[in-house]
Amino acid sequence: xxxxxxxxxxxxxxxxxxxxxxxxxxxxxxxxxxxxxxxxxxxxxxxxxxxxxxxxxxxxxxxxxxxxxxxxxxxxxxxxxxxxxxxxxxxxxxxxxxxxxxxxxxxxxxxxxxxxxxxxxxxxxxxxxxxxxxxxxxxxxxxxxxxxxxxxxxxxxxxxxxxxxxxxxxxxxxxxxxxxxxxxxxxxxxxxxxxxxxxxxxxxxxxxxxxxxxxxxxxxxxxxxxxxxxxxxxxxxxxxxxxxxxxxxxxxxxxxxxxxxxxxxxxxxxxxxxxxxxxxxxxxxxxxxxxxxxxxxxxxxxxxxxxxxxxxxxxxxxxxxxxxxxxxxxxxxxxxxxxxxxxxxxxxxxxxxxxxxxxxxxxxxxxxxxxxxxxxxxxxxxxxxxxxxxxxxxxxxxxxxxxxxxxxxxxxxxxxxxxxxxxxxxxxxxxxxxxxxxxxxxxxxxxxxxxxxxxxxxxxxxxxxxxxxxxxxxxxxxxxxxxxxxxxxxxxxxxxxxxxxxxxxxxxxxxxxxxxxxxxxxxxxxxxxxxxxxxxxxxxxxxxxxxxxxxxxxxxxxxxxxxxxxxxxxxxxxxxxxxxxxxxxxxxxxxxxxxxxxxxxxxxxxxxxxxxxxxxxxxxxxxxxxxxxxxxxxxxxxxxxxxxxxxxxxxxxxxxxxxxxxxxxxxxxxxxxxxxxxxxxxxxxxxxxxxxxxxxxxxxxxxxxx
Length: 706
Hints:
The chain is mostly beta strands and 706 residues long. It contains no helices and 38 strands. 44% of the residues are buried.
């Protein structure tokens, strides 16, 4: 929003003021920088530069009220809308796109249709947007989502419409506007809440992702699986090419390349007003999506919106999640999940804000003081669902928890056990339709984020530790409701980093486990010898680990002053000569404080690596690497002067710099007090007989007198 190069977060609120949270470059502010002046029921927001000034403006779609556009001044949004629609609709979705191909953005509005409203497009002609709308659909639907995309590849934007309880549609653009009747209609009718265009199979045309929620008819539940419709040469299939294997309450779908492999993956925001659900990411294998999610969020909320963006500026996509609070679910914290380069974290890095539904308690001496502490497993209801541990002082429990888990889940069971064999108690957590977890004890307390999570979610009701295979370490039994019960065995892990040896790229290094590019340097920036160029093979090791090193001298190309010469890599003084030397006669006389090392047959050795002009006077800006005084007062120009200024040009070699020498061509004179051209040195050439009086005499042995 503020044009500083990092992504800020706009939040649309129901029965509240809308907000924008600014990004400082690495994290979002926890308090909004901008708040709208009015409180409305906002269902959808979209960024777009409507006035063409290079700044992103904000479109707001409101339910039962007029839609709005807030203009951006360059650093912030106006608090009052610059444009409002002439009519009040039950708007569900808004989307920017250039429908008429004139180079500026027009606004598509998707409405619920409960009162017969049709969908609309407002075209920008003069001012901000037209009044009234310039296009309406011919039929009325309970539209929940609209999305622009060039489905037929003709260079103009077509409109996808997601309808709840009706067929989904695409309206074709004829070059100057949309047709009033749909070009494409899906065969099946579903509870669609979100649609998004993306090229899932990499063939160059846009495919359509559809997020669905089940349709409830009394005791009957129909549909709810998410779908992707494939585009072949400009025509969408009427039946989906991909269907998720689970039927959940999806409210938002969005495409993004989470793992950096060049194809689009699908993030899914899930939730229902009366019960929370996990959000998911489905990975693309290059031609299609996996049927089961590769990533699921650790906590379950009523998520209404998800959006990709690089919040921390590290080059990969992070996931913003907007959560809705309703009925007995009082939780509504918004979140951001960070991407480590190939996958999302399972716990949020940021929440906007935080009573209990306890399902399980267990005694255990967490801190090793001989007293039993109490672990509490909490279920999400009308309270926060973080799990907790209450400390035992020896006579009683503290009334406030000494430890709280970082994520909020539907926990059904907790159990203490020393899973890593280090003598302190770790905690296993069984969650209701979520992943099982293990929290490791660092010696006196639990780490707040899980060291292990199961790959599959289930309706877990009980977890228990026991050595099932008699190998001396604890295995975990899991009792599931409506599913198979399970036992997880402990795998060999030499370095104790909670990655089994057969999956650990660094068996003996607990700080690293993944080497995505296979260059021998780990991907974790918090670990030992971490890869500075993760995802790209490299063998540099001097300045950075694991980056491209063309000449194999250990210095990465980026920081190598001689990137094709393997005997030189740094030129500290910038004179084109390297710090390393190969002249053996220098070994005894060379200043040991200087940078560089002896190498046979070295390229372009520098006799003084801290002296740009090599005049014997070192450069003061290089003191940190061994330069010593007297420092060069003319560091860019060779000079031999020693008087007043060091290392400056001295044409007559009398020690005085030319700029301070009255006679730069006469080594016997350097000062002329009266400025008459005759030097003050009586032993020099043509000495001034009257050195304090300007004069021009030059005969009879008297010079410079009146």
